């Protein structure tokens, strides 16, 4: 078994003056205890219907990836803004903006803890459920806040939400949480399946799973 990971917790990825003081704008990064050369970075984004979840719940994912004998990876687990029933709650594209800022920070910032262990030219995005939706949309639809798709090698979606209109047609009761995060006019444009019809040219090199 590999040596235990070094863990750097609660790293802010937005400056306080831009509203980044919230714990929702932080990430944890896990790097191998022994790392003679920079290693690829996995960025993990949790699910939870855009309204629940926290990076602390997925420590086991990061540790499992790093301690697997065949792997030599660093792993970042990201928090992002979540929707609530409050009138001023974040809605799309607020969650996506948070995730884009986190990945941009990991690729471009030179000073965060563990940075020397990370090869920022080999980034792999992994998301579950709503997290898969956000990462697929980040890769497939141009996002002004993330002009760094050249650093991304792959996107892995686990149980992702890729077609919101079809989701609601199949499971009408899901409108309970979808309506918290999206207006009806956004359902199609916020669906990775729709964005994939005109693949973002900057993502043409990316492998999708």
SS element count, helices:
6
Number of strands: 7
Estimate percent helicity: 25-40%
| Termini gap | 27 Å
Mean pLDDT: 91
Strand content: 15-25%
* Poorly predicted ranges: none
What pattern of helices and strands is seen along the backbone? EEEHEHEHEHHHE
Class per helix and strand makeup: alpha/beta
Largest sheet: 7 strands, mixed
Shape: globular
Strand order of the largest sheet: 1-2-4-3-5-6-7
Short note summarizing the structure:
By secondary structure, the protein is of the alpha/beta class. It has 6 helices and 7 strands; from the N terminus they run βββαβαβαβαααβ. Helices cover 25% and strands 22% of the residues.
Word description of this protein:
With 209 residues, this protein is α/β, with parallel strands linked by helices. 25% of the residues lie in helices and 22% in strands. The chain has 6 helices and 7 strands; from the N terminus they run βββαβαβαβαααβ. It has a 7-stranded mixed sheet, with helices on both faces. Helix 3 links the parallel strand 5 and strand 6. Helix 2 crosses helix 3. The longest helix has 15 residues. The relative contact order is 0.16. The model has no long low-confidence stretch (mean pLDDT 91).
Features:
209 residues; alpha/beta; 7-stranded mixed β-sheet; 6 helices; 7 strands; 25% helix; 22% strand; globular
Write the layout of secondary structure elements.
Elements: E1 5-12, E2 26-32, E3 39-45, H1 59-67, E4 74-78, H2 94-108, E5 118-128, H3 130-140, E6 152-158, H4 164-170, H5 175-181, H6 192-195, E7 207-208
Parallel strand pairs: 3-4, 3-5, 5-6, 6-7
Antiparallel strand pairs: 1-2, 2-4
Helix pairs in contact: 2-3
């Amino acid at each position: 078994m590999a040596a235990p990971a070094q863990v750097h917790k609660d790293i802010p990825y937005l400056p306080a003056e831009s509203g980044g003081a919230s714990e929702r704008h932080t990430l944890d990064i896990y790097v191998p205890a022994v790392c003679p050369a920079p290693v690829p970075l996995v960025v993990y984004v949790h699910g939870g219907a855009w309204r629940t979840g926290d990076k602390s719940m997925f420590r086991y994912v990061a540790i499992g990836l790093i301690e697997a004998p065949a792997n030599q990876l660093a792993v970042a687990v990201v928090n992002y803004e979540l929707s609530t029933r409050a009138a001023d709650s974040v809605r799309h594209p607020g969650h996506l903006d948070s995730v884009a800022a986190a990945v941009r920070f990991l690729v471009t910032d030179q000073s965060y803890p563990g940075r020397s262990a990370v090869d920022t030219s080999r980034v792999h995005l992994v998301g579950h459920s709503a997290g898969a939706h956000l990462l697929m949309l980040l890769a497939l639809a141009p996002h002004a806040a993330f002009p760094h798709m050249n650093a991304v090698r792959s996107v892995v979606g686990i149980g992702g939400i890729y077609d919101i209109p079809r989701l609601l047609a199949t499971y009408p009761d899901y409108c309970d949480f979808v309506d918290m995060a999206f207006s009806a006019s956004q359902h199609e444009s916020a669906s990775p399946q729709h964005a994939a019809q005109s693949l973002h040219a900057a993502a043409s090199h990316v492998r999708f799973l």
